[in-house]
Every structure is written in C-alpha cells, then in structure tokens.
Protein 1
Amino acid sequence: ETLVGQFTIGGMTCAACVNSVEGILRNLPGVKRAVVALATSLGEVEYDPSVISKDDIVNAIEDSGFEASFVQ
Ligand code: 9UX
C-alpha cells in the first residue's frame, strides 16, 4: 500500500534546507518519494504505512531541527 501525506515544515530558510529535508525523507525506510517546496513550506511524501508511520516521518524531520506537522 502507498499513501500520500502532506505536511507543513517550519524553519526552512534557504534552498539547502530543502535539500536537507528531502534527503532526510528519501533516506527513510518506507518513503518512496519526497518533495519539499521552500516558497510554500509544504512537503509531500509517498510512503508505505506498513513500514513507516506519519509520526515517524514527522519525528525524523524534527530530529534534524525543523518543525513538521501533517495536514493530511
Ligand atoms: Mo541554509 Mo537551512 O544556509 O538549515 S541550510 S538555512
């Protein structure tokens, strides 16, 4: 199963932040696709919920010093 999750990310102030967050997300087991937009502070991931939860994804972002919360 693949779900799509969308979330807001706080604390990104430059393009390197975007690359950093995308890299973190893409390295998580169970995450198949991740895109992050600086202008809107929005991110979207495709993930396998049998491997990783929304909370795990949010925690991974927050562990790297950004804020995150799912909107869907
Ligand atoms: Mo840019 Mo982001 O110099 O953590 S990488 S602000």
Note: The domain at 3-70 is CATH 3.30.70.100 (Alpha-Beta Plaits).
Protein 2
Amino acid sequence: GEYRQDLIDRAARDHVLNASEIESLLTDDEAEKALAAAADRVRQEFVGDGVHLRGLIEFSNICRCHCMYCGLRCDNSKIERYRLSPDEIVELADKARGYGYHTVVLQSGEDLQFTAPVLCGIIRRIKAMDLAVTLSVGERSYEEYQAFREAGADRYLLRIETTDAALYERWDPGMSHARRIQCTLDLKKLGYEVGTGTLVGLPGQTPAMIARDILWYQQIDADMVGIGPLIPNGDTPLGKAAPGDWHLTRRMVSLLRLLLPEANIPATTAMETMVPHGREVILNSGANVVMPNVTEGDFRRKYALYPGKICVADTPADCRACMGGRIRAMGRFVAADKGFRHHGRRRQ
Ligand code: 5AD
Ligand code: FES
C-alpha cells in the first residue's frame, strides 16, 4: 500500500517510471483509484479543466487492410460500404464549426480513392474556415504526408496499436511494424502533432508490452495518445476473442497522464461502449479530450469498427449538446481554443 502510493506520488512529481514499475501499477487493481486521483491532479496542473471537443467525420469505410479485429477490414462483406464526396465532407466540417467545434478529425479506412490531391483540396477548403484539421487515414508515403501538411493539416492520428512487432504483424497481417514506426516518425518530422495509441486486449498482449508502449510514447514525445479496449467484432476473425480489460485500460490512461503530462488524451468512444458514462470516468482519470461524432444519418451505423457503437441513432447536434452538458456537470468546461498540445505547466 505504502510502496504503491510512493510510486504514484513519485510518478506524479517526476513523470518518470521504469518498465517494471509501470507494469506493477498496470496490473494492480487496488492502485486504480489512487492512479486516477493523481492523474486528475496532473491533468489539472498541466492542461487545466478545459475539455477539447473534436468533431469526428467518418468519411469513408472502404479499407484495403486486413486487421483481424476491425469491422472495416476489406475481407468483411457484411458491412455496406460508403464514401462521402468532397463537398459532403466540407459541408459536415462547416456544420461542425456551427456547433462550436474548433477541430475536425477526418477519419476513414485506408481508402486510396482519396488521393493526395483530393484530400489536399478538402483540407484547404476546411482550413479556410478557421478550423484545426486532424487526419486519420492510415499509412501513406512521406510525400503524401508532406502534401497534406502543406495543404494545412495540423495533426495526424495513427495508432501503433502495439509496440510489439510480432504481435502487431500477427493481428494486422500484410502490414509491417517497422513501416508503421517509420510513418509515425515521418509525421513527427513533418511537424504534425502526432497521435498514437494502444489497442488494449489484443490476444497475446502482456502488461510488459503495454508498459513498453507507454515508454515508447514518452520516447517519441507523442502529442496525443488514444487508447481503447478491444471490442470483439463478430464479423472479424477476432470475433470470439475476450474483450479488452476496461479497468486495465483506465489504469493505462492514468499512467499516460502521469508520464506524458502535456499530452492530449481522449476519453475514447470504446470506453463508453463498454461502460455507460465511461467517458466521464476517463475524463476524471487523466483524459482531457472527447471526439463526438459529426457524421450524419446511416453513415454512423455503417462505420462499424466494432459492435455496440454509441450514438448511432443520435444526430451531431444531440452529441454536441450531450457532451457539453456532461462536461459542465463534472465541473469542467468546453475549451474555446483549438486545443494544441501544451508545453510545460499551465500558466496560472
Ligand atoms: N475494438 C476496439 N477498437 C478497435 N479499433 C479497430 N477495431 C476495433 C475493435 N474491434 C480501433 C483501432 C484503430 C482505431 C481507429 O479503432 O485501434 O486504430
Ligand atoms: Fe452522442 Fe451523448 S455523445 S448522444
């Protein structure tokens, strides 16, 4: 008990732990509350009480990949595929701005019909609206990442999923772990704010691997880290796998805040799919970002990474009002700025 609290206090003060210390806290159920309390204080101290809302536009569910857990995998014939037009995407961004979002996240499967020139045109039109733009369209060449950046993209989300190369290549067949690391470093070099993260609960993943994930996020100085538990999808080869451990994921969020105090850390949709009001719990455990969906109509349901996705019957206006109310009820507030990554402690 005392040793555990000493470790947590030291992490909250120095933002340093070694792999075995991280692993001991990750696997300790009884550490969860104290970890969350310490992470909540560090979150307050470094990034404040503002919660940044990012409007998520799921613009295509067409994907060339075969990830064994993901409903968008190209081998899945059970979902209806769709692709929004550039005009439709720009219109959703304009509506997102109308709801008071300051960032839009353009997310899709790895859909190569969205060539660099097409995506650059979309990015330029959205940047003209004074919105921050986050891209999440998977692995592309250095030249394409450079073109997106020059068109105005500010941030890029590309989860590493796991830093264990063998585990990654087992569950993302056809993909190269070295290539994924290279993409992440390319994005950093190009001056993006880079988001990475872990899929918690991949079969064969160990707490030691998750500890190494956290150390790698520290090492690359990740600007954003998004993590969520595996939610088995019956239309995929991992449909009968055990779900990821929600509590382990929560402890990982808290450890991330202690060790990357300046990072933007979302309370992810998957955390709320597993536990009602899960996003509030995570916002009180170190997180400071939420990504409400601004996709409209039936496209929400069709963008089915995993079953049980929340808000499929809600409108963008519903989600914006819902999250605003919930954030205020927690004694926090919806941040009014674009929410770029912090450097150093918050000015008082
Ligand atoms: N359960 C939870 N998260 C998933 N993702 C994909 N499929 C699943 C699933 N079945 C996550 C991956 C990916 C992100 C967009 O969604 O981590 O990076
Ligand atoms: Fe969608 Fe609550 S966030 S309805």
Note: The pocket of FE2/S2 (inorganic) cluster (ligand 2) is lined by residues 292, 311, 314, 318-319, 322-323 (CB under 6 Å).
